[in-house]
Design a protein that fits this description.
By secondary structure, the protein is an all-alpha fold. The chain contains 5 helices and no strands.
Length: 82
């Protein structure tokens, strides 16, 4: 039986979510299907680019969270016991 792999399978492969057995089959499919190989290479490039993205919250967001947390005791159960 010939297994047909989808783009979802390739994405799982890129993110190392496939078994050793699946890896062998997917690698064979990549070698024999140029369109799947192109998608694989694009997915690798996209993953690398996404890993370079730096995310930081705005200072005002951090301050809002800190201000909110200052209004509550560290242990909510302690407030009930007082």
């Amino acid at each position: 039986m010939i297994k047909t792999f989808t783009q979802d399978d390739v994405i799982r492969y890129v993110y190392e979510e496939t078994s050793v057995e699946e890896n062998v089959l997917i690698e064979d499919a990549l070698m024999s299907e140029p369109e799947l190989m192109t998608f694989f290479l694009d997915a690798l490039e996209l993953r690398a680019l996404m890993n370079k993205i730096e995310r930081q919250p705005r200072a005002s967001t951090v301050e809002s969270i800190l201000a909110y947390s200052r209004n509550y005791p560290p242990n909510p159960a302690a407030k009930l016991q007082s």
